[in-house]
Write a structure and sequence with these properties.
It comes from Candidatus Accumulibacter appositus. The chain has nine helices and seven strands; from the N terminus they run H-E-E-E-E-H-E-E-H-H-H-H-E-H-H-H. It is an alpha+beta fold.
């Protein structure tokens, strides 16, 4: 790459050592690593749109199962109980733990649902470029929702609770719990396989191709990756 072409590439700070360096144009399947610590700064997947679309559709189906099916079945001293995510949040609300109930609903239902639906809309629209300008805004909001989908944290909390009550009651994990575990794997998989720059390049911006190129080649981490 010539010096002029190299100087036109965006600067990116390494998340591990804060070294500022320019990211070159990556080939399909290529990765850019930090020159100091070797941390992966950027990657260009071989299938940047099809694989995330398949994973997003799968995650939506699993999301419905996780919220519709019971998380676990409890039985103790002749009593039997079974609940879903929303059922547990409702019980917290009735018990006076309203802030906790709202956090559970947002992180386990609202945020992942918005993220998956927005990603699905963007990925479906990206199959027929150019994308309308609203696709970029939808992608930005969807990626802002991603960190709030905390199925891994919630799953860890449920497992800790199961260990504590295992000696007091008979606990049988339900289909919803297994679906939550699968979602905890699918959501990061979507993030790893999805390349936002491929979408930015296909967006038809109101202010012309120069703005689209700026979004495609600029620091997309700051614009919602």
């Amino acid at each position: 790459m010539s010096d002029a072409a190299r100087s036109s590439q965006p600067l990116m700070a390494c998340q591990e050592c804060d070294l500022l360096q320019r990211i070159p144009v990556l080939p399909v399947g290529g990765r850019a690593r930090c020159a100091r610590c070797g941390f992966v700064l950027a990657a260009r997947p071989r299938d940047p749109l099809e694989l995330p679309l398949v994973l997003t559709l799968t995650a939506l189906i699993v999301f419905v199962v996780a919220n519709a099916m019971p998380l676990m079945d409890l039985s103790a001293v002749g009593r039997y109980a079974s609940t879903t995510i929303l059922g547990g949040a409702r019980q917290m609300w009735l018990d006076g733990e309203r802030i906790t109930a709202m956090i559970v609903v947002f992180c386990a239902v609202i945020a992942p649902a918005l993220y998956l639906l927005m990603m699905l809309a963007v990925l479906l629209a990206a199959r027929r470029p150019p994308l309308p300008h609203w696709s970029g805004e939808l992608l930005r909001w969807g990626l802002h929702m991603q960190p709030w989908a905390m199925y891994d944290v919630m799953l860890l909390g449920i497992l800790v609770a199961l260990i504590k009550i295992a000696q007091l009651a008979t606990v049988d994990p339900g289909v919803g719990l297994f679906a939550m575990g699968l979602l905890a794997l699918l959501l990061p998989a979507i993030s790893v396989t999805f390349d936002a720059r491929e979408v930015w390049k296909r967006v038809e911006w109101k202010h012309g191709d120069d703005l689209a190129a700026a979004f495609a080649d600029g620091n997309y981490e700051e614009r919602g990756r």
